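Q: Sequence in, structure out?
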Amino acid sequence: MVASGDDRPLILVADDHDFMRDVLSRFLQQQGFDTIEAENGQQAVALFQQRRPELILMDALMPVLDGFTACRIIKQSDHHGLATPVIMVTALEDDASVDRAFQSGAEEYITKPIHWSVLRQRAWMLIDTRRLEQERTHILRELERSEQHFRSITQ
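A: Exactly. Output:
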């Protein structure tokens, strides 16, 4: 899927390396996404709260606040409907880091060097799934309102 115009999903890219943030952002923009960037976990949490992106790419090892902790904070504070998915993008390949990422709330784990097709597919899959769930939730709420309205008329 490729979005156009105002339908371009917003992705937060959090990585402490300027080069990696730039490469990720450029790639994502070419794939139909808009991006915002954070250079550490603390900035990622603040940007998440301000902008509410549809997806977050989070490096694990960053200064000030690491990606694992930032992911956990974001997941605990995400009270606006469906949780924003997080893809942990890191050079860490050990089992403990993978486990820690998922325990922190990440939905996906992609290692560096990045397989770009995998990243593109995972990003669209997570965003499409989240959008479908939001639509489903909206429809269910509308059905409940209609049912309540109908019951109030027929009583």
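Helices lie at 18-30, 41-51, 67-77, 95-103, 116-154.
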